[in-house]
Write a structure and sequence with these properties.
204 residues, 24% helix, 9 strands, alpha/beta, three-stranded mixed β-sheet
Length: 204
């Protein structure tokens, strides 16, 4: 919240004060409660065609830039929904071969960061009918790996960490770039300046 306030994000914390029933996601599958909460939140926003929604995990990330930068980078890609990407597949390694090949960049979906136009995000999360302790990343992965859904929803991954930087398995490709007024995280593999820095799994 400190970095969100610093960069003037409008934040809605989903599930604040609600008991966590999504399992121990640091050790096993889980996190479905996040999808349910987002599904409930999106019902009131579903018809706002020009609204761009950013959904991120709550306790293991910081913002390194403002919403204007995220919006500009997202719109440059001409997609309707963009998921964070990472180099390690989770939770089902058997799905690796079903992922589209990428010439350069991270190949696998990470559910800790999602940005997209409200009707499209709503379309995805409205398909959720599982339990709070089912796996959110597996849910999103199965939708993304369906070629027809991927095309109709115009979905892609942030392969080169333009917006989302997951640190798990990638700490060695990230360095701090010191400017005159602030410091940015720089991904040296893709020469990008990610805006959302996510300390997922053991990198918190």
């Amino acid at each position: 919240m400190q970095t969100a306030n610093y960069f003037n994000y409008t934040v809605t914390v989903l599930g604040m004060g609600e008991t966590w029933k999504g399992g121990d996601v640091g050790r096993s599958i889980g996190g479905g409660q996040k999808v349910r909460l987002l599904k409930e939140a999106m019902e009131n926003l579903a018809d706002q065609e020009d609204l761009v929604v950013l959904f991120v995990d709550s306790y293991d990330l910081i913002f390194a830039g403002g919403p204007e930068e995220i919006l500009r980078k997202f719109q440059q890609g001409n997609h309707k929904v963009l998921f964070a990407a990472e180099g390690m597949i989770w939770p089902d390694k058997r799905l690796a071969d079903k992922y589209p090949l990428v010439r350069s960049g991270k190949r696998y979906l990470n559910s800790g960061g999602i940005i997209g136009y409200a009707p499209y995000v709503n379309n995805i999360v409205s398909q959720w009918n599982l339990h709070d302790n089912d796996d959110d990343q597996l849910f999103y992965t199965k939708i993304y790996l369906d070629p027809l859904k991927r095309k109709s929803l115009n979905m892609t991954l942030d392969h080169k960490c333009q917006i989302f930087q997951n640190l798990n398995g990638a700490v060695d490709e990230v360095l701090l770039k010191f400017g005159t007024d602030r410091v940015r995280v720089r991904n040296t593999a893709y020469n990008s300046l990610p805006v959302v820095v996510h300390g997922n799994r053991d990198t918190k």
